[in-house]
Structure formats: C-alpha cells, structure tokens
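Human: I would love a firmer grasp of how sequence relates to backbone shape in proteins. Could you go through the record with me and say what the backbone is doing? Here is the record:
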Amino acid sequence: MALFLFLLLAAVVLGLIGVVADGLFYLLIIGIVVLVIDLVFVGVRWRRSRRGFLR
C-alpha cells in the first residue's frame, strides 16, 4: 500500500509540475504514465489477493 501511495504522489507532483512549468509538458506525460502503471499494479495485486481469498 505504501508503494501505491508513493507512486500516486509522484504522479500527481510530476503532473502538476508539467502543467505549471513552461516547457515541461513531458513531465505531465511521465506523470500520467506513472499513474497508469500504478493503477495496473494495484489492480493485479488486488485481483491476485481476491482470487486467493476465494479458494
């Protein structure tokens, strides 16, 4: 859970810097990519733990 929150915070910070700073649009893109990877990671872990719980 701590890794999820850290990656979520990093994605938000990168996104904000990318929007606010002039010429750093690539940071917004990196923030979005980190957010998507984080959500996929949590989804896989949640699905795996749920499957084990049902057995």
About this structure: The radius of gyration is 14 Å.
